[in-house]
Amino acid sequence: MVESSPEFVQLITPEGERISNPELDPWVADVTDAQLTAWYEDMVVVRRIDTEATALQRQGELGLWPPLLGQEAAQVGSSRATRDDDFIFPSYRENAVAYVRGVPFADIVRVWRGNAQSGWDPYKHQLAAPNIIIGAQTLHAVGWGVGAKYDGVDSVAVTYFGDGATSEGDVNEAMVFAASFQAPVVFFCQNNHWAISEPVGLQAVQSIADRAPGFGIPSLRVDGNDVLAVVAATRLALDRARRGDGPTFIEAVTYRMGPHTTADDPTRYRDKAELEAWKLRDPILRLQRLLDSLGLLTPELEARTQAKADEVAAELRAGCINMPDPEPLTVFDNVYATPNATLEKERDQYAAYLSSFDSSNTTSNGGRS
Amino acid sequence: MTPDTTTKTLTLAKAINAGLHRALTDDPRVVLLGEDIGALGGVFRVTSDLLAEFGPRRVMDTPLAESAIIGMAVGLAYRGYRPVAEIQFDGFIYPGFDQIVSQVAKLHYRTQGAVKMPITIRVPFGGGIGAAEHHSESPEAYFTHTSGLRVIAVSNPQDAYSLIRQAIASDDPVLYFEPKGRYHAKGEVIPELGASMERATIVAPGTDVTLVTYGPLVPTARDAALAAADEGVSIEVIDLRSLSPVDYPTLEASVRKTGRLVVTHEANRTGGIGGEVIASLTESCFNYLESAPVRVTGFDIPYPAAKLESHHLPDLDRILDGIDTVMGR
Ligand SMILES: Cc1ncc(C[n+]2csc(CCOP(=O)(O)OP(=O)(O)O)c2C)c(N)n1
């Protein structure tokens, strides 16, 4: 399967060697040393966010956490390729995308602490609320893209989803609509090989990228652990969309090295050997080797990157543990944009009920003691 | 093989597993399908070990598409199978909604009884477990509104075992709601089909107030009855078990005895089962009621973030507050 046939485009080998690819090379010809080291820093930092958030979950500060361990290159490379005015529709695992989009660190974990259902303002970061319904966001991206086209701007909608999601009707319907309307959409599938316990082979008997052409959407299969190849592929797809050539489908072949979430136990369904094989293709290690061969992996870079990771982790931790619980009556907020009499009555009744226990303590659970 | 008649102490999740095991053993036309139900045994382990014993044709891991899971069950039922579909979490049933209400519920009627839809759809439901969005919902009322479906909710291991077997044996489609917050609650299980799934059960007898509930709130209602007893109020707690159809004779007998009625559920108030039960009992027992019936329910809001769910969900105190209201105190 995927492991035995590397039928994907690659610019950096797992050994860190820069190889050429005539289709992709032009898209990264302008990449500077500084950009390469910046992406390296991004990847190290998001891996550190994962470690810190996992620790916070174990310490009871987060209810749950979905690690992206192993998918750093796919997420950092693709989101770094976007423009600020492009709009991203993620699922729940795109924490690196949120980081790249400048979401405050504590807001990245706000959802997982149970304080809110979306931790950030979508319009501030051009990043939609995370979507847990598998694949639903791909349809939103098509709608957004059609709107952008009507508005005459060359912004693009980018949507992230997993290999499992490609089985959902919504993703397939999204491809039909995107093709029909020639919507400026980049479908970015992270094939991390598993949908909770289900291997990708259960979702797709041929490569996922092969499906899109059936909908009339050109596709690319790229090594998702190769940040340079991901940047190149995404730039290519974004450029097509900006020029009015419609949607492109990218399958980034990567691997989820951790559990599905902190509640999952992958040892129940997957082979240790498989994980060990993928560790050799670690996206961070690979870029590190390339940087080393270019003489860029200086002690100064390593120290700076570590310091940044430490700083982000500390800020994330402090922001998380100092996050106040939301006020009880906020459960009623924003159900409707215009006032709703029934709901206001419910709010008033509950407010009176809460204050009947202890007028000084409005955050009480209403204990009857 | 002689049937196993020994009593066992099982969790609610294990009791369903035992019921599924028995149904798979007894009837080769029974097949299970759903996401992660195979090697993993489901995200709640309700289908643990069934793949190993019955193989992948009887215990099918499916791709991620709820509409296709239900639609495939319809095709299997056309060919005479008795599919048991698992929806992973309450909040993910909606992509399959169309297949449930438009196909599963109506095919028997549309074909003048020629096609049977003996499909069981298992749905872990309810909140209070600090879960993420879409993992704590109570969507049962959508299905009670649809003719052609039977809807049940279980509250204890014995019923979980008995009613999954009754649901699978039913020639009508059954929505089988499992209170996920009570999956680990233990109880004695005898391997019998038990009382008909159409019957409500009186969980605790009483004389002053009828307190009606189902699923995850049954133990809470029982606690409320104990607390009220301390204050000199005698509560009759009724577990509906079947939400569609509702066992009105049992409810009516109780209301005629007590003269007061409280209905409690986690689901939103508007359009909920509480309103329907109260309207029906008001129609049938108006002259027996000594006060206006009261609903103690979730608010009319999307299920809130985990830190707020304790405010949304009815608890012991809110149920007691409802009891005070019907008692005029
Ligand atoms: C409609 C729907 N069905 C089921 C689920 C439960 N669920 C959450 S994640 C997941 C697996 C998703 O796999 P994939 O699309 O490959 O993304 P990954 O988690 O690997 O990033 C499942 C089944 C859900 N969130 N939404």
From TrEMBL, chain B:
Residues 10-185 form the Transketolase-like pyrimidine-binding domain. GO terms for molecular function: magnesium ion binding; oxidoreductase activity. SUPFAM superfamilies: Thiamin diphosphate-binding fold (THDP-binding), TK C-terminal domain-like. Its cofactor is thiamine diphosphate. Pfam families: Transket_pyr, Transketolase_C. It comes from the Bacteria. Transmembrane segments: none annotated. Gene3D superfamilies: 3.40.50.920, 3.40.50.970. InterPro entries: THDP-binding, Transketo_C/PFOR_II, Transketolase-like_Pyr-bd, Transketolase_C. CDD domains: TPP_PYR_E1-PDHc-beta_like. Keywords: Oxidoreductase, Thiamine pyrophosphate. Signal peptide: none annotated. This is Alpha-ketoacid dehydrogenase subunit beta. It comes from Cryobacterium psychrophilum. The lineage of its organism: Bacteria, Bacillati, Actinomycetota, Actinomycetes, Micrococcales.
